Amino acid sequence: MRAIFAARWSFQRTLVTRIIPDPWALPPCPSTFPAYEPKPFFRFEIIHRSRRSSARIGRLHTPHGTVETPAFVAVGTNAALKMVDQRRADEAGLELLFCNTYHLLLQPGPEIVTQAGGLHRFMQRSRPIMTDSGGFQVFSLAHGSVFDELNMKTRKRGSPNLLLAVSENGPVFRSYRDGRKIELTPEKSVQAQKMLGADIIIPLDELPPYHIDRDALYQSVLLSHRWEARSLREHLHDMRQQAMYAVIHGGIDLELRRKSVEYLTALPFDGIAIGGSLGKDREELLALLAFLDTLLPKDRPVHLLGIADEESIRRAVPYGIDTFDSCYPTRAGRHGTLLTRQHGRIQIKSRKWERVFEPVDTTCEGFVSQNHTLAYLHHLWRAHEPLAAALLTLHNIKYMCDVMREIRTRILADEL
Coiled coil located at which positions (predicted)? Predict the structure, then answer.
């Protein structure tokens, strides 16, 4: 008889049915997996280790080119950077792009992307791509982000709960596009990512809320481990020149994080991603990274999921983080914020910039700074011209790539 229990995310006041035969079941023993072997198509090369911290300069060698690390990874949710053409992003220095399997699973579907020759051909991108499992969107669309939880934000009255159930097989949810019911198993997630053809893929995991009791969190970590082990087995059956990163879980519980690191690093994953709830603020995040820095292997790349604002990057790099993904810099551009060295953050709608006939940033050699003035961008924004959001977004991508180049220079000089 299967044990059936319900977990209520208190801040959302929604019921998610969990059907787990044994919530305390251990994942398969690492000895049942082959030993890790370096791949000819994927390699992490460490160029320099800082003498002051765990910061390092590296190179990710992938089938679609090299990524200089530490690196900012922009998010192209639907196989597109909102408002920015791929070629312009390439010129700005963007080397690695993050696409979301959940959204691509619903539209256009992995089968169509496969018929197009994979994501790279479909979106005409020659540089590396990373995809997630779809799990983050399934769970975050159901119970919100940590920010939503801490600020007591709930779904609008009458809006559907997209997450229907969680079983040992995987989550069951409704498509936000057409309402159809979908079961996302670890195997289906990996198969979808095989069809998309990204260079780096992620195993299926569960995203529990920030406020959760320890037993429930531990059960979630064990479930994620079982799903990740199944994802890895599916991946190893047919690697297709793709690397797979494990996702470390445990919330801000250090002992659970330790258990997660110990188990997942014993499996033949090509890299490590730090996921789950990363704390209620930057200080909790950094305390967690400081703890993980002593545990994570030093020869595999480490990716921080969903965090890539400038201050967090600068403070996280000394803990050995190599890549950071976030939609923040591009979203900020679409909402009228320019990131600059010369003026700090600029709200372009402000009348302050109406008659400033100077480049956006005289220290920047990007397309926007070289060709447009603050007064012109202010005019475009006030006139509601779509070009304004496009130019602001492109500039912010260039800004983040320049920040990462500066960070790599400082690591090389042992300043970080």
Answer: none
- Alpha carbon distance 121, 100 (integer Å): 17
- The DSSP result for 291-323, as a single string, is HHHTTS-SSS-EEETT---HHHHHHHGGGT--E
pLDDT the model gives residue 415: 98
Sign of CA dihedral 184, 186, 191, 197: positive
Q: Nearest 5°: CA angle at 236, between 235 and 239?
A: 70
Residue of 199, 205, 325, 402 marked catalytic:
325
Cα–Cα distances in angstroms (integers) from residue 410 to residues 152, 300, 314, in the given order: 40, 21, 11
Q: What integer pLDDT is reported at residue 162 of this predicted model? A: 87
- Catalytic residue check, 325: yes
pLDDT tens readout for residues 150-178: 444 555 555 567 899 999 999 999 999 99
Token pair recorded at residue 191: 């198969």
What is the pairing mode between strands 345-347 and 181-183? unpaired
**pLDDT at position 265:** 98
The active-site residue, picked from 132, 199, 253, 270, is 132
Backbone angles phi, psi at 74, to 5 degrees: -75, 155
CATH 3.20.20.105: does it fit domain 22-326? yes
Is this model's pTM higher than 0.85 or not? Answer: yes
Among the listed residues 316, 325, 259, the one whose alpha carbon sits nearest the alpha carbon of residue 26 = 259
Q: Which tokens sit at 151?
A: 């600020």
Question: Rounded to whole angstroms, how far apart are CA atoms 112 and 105?
Answer: 10
Strands 302-304 and 323-326: parallel
* Inter-residue contact 326 to 308 (CB < 8 Å): yes
Tokens of residue 193, six digits: 């990512």
Q: Please give the pLDDT value at position 161.
A: 77
Cα-based distances in Å from 185 to 94, 125, 146, 198, 227: 32, 28, 24, 19, 8
Identity of the residue numbered 262? E
- Domain coordinates in residue numbering, the chain: 22-326, 338-394
Question: What Cα–Cα distance (Å) separates residue 373 from each residue in 61, 348, 361?
Answer: 38, 11, 9
pLDDT at 4: 34
Active site residue 270: no
Can you tell me whether residue 205 is helix, strand or coil?
coil
Q: Which residues of the chain have pLDDT under 50?
A: 1-14, 146-147, 149-152
